[in-house]
Write a structure and sequence with these properties.
Layout (H helix, E strand, L loop, with lengths): L1 E7 L3 H12 L4 E7 L4 E6 L4 H15 L4 E3 L2
Antiparallel strand pairs: 1-3, 1-4, 2-3
Helix pairs in contact: 1-2
Length: 72
């Protein structure tokens, strides 16, 4: 499953670090944090998607505690 989310990221360097952190999570097929578009794209295993999404948000907030991901 692949989904896109609006997010708030302070700088391009943080976005790159967040992308790297999310890609290390087991079950993630593809991830990208785009600073210019303020978008977070996550592609992960369908059966664990919600769990992986939660882990991804936590990993992103470890890089920058001000990061916000808007999950509908």
């Amino acid at each position: 499953m692949k989904k896109k989310y609006k997010c708030e990221v302070d700088c391009a360097n943080c976005a790159a670090k967040m992308t790297d952190a999310v890609l290390k999570i087991d079950g993630v097929k593809h991830a990208n944090v785009n600073f210019m578009m303020q978008k977070f794209t996550l592609e992960a295993d369908d059966d664990r998607f919600e769990e992986i999404l939660g882990l991804s948000v936590k990993a992103m907030q470890k890089v920058d505690s001000d990061c916000v991901v808007y999950i509908q």
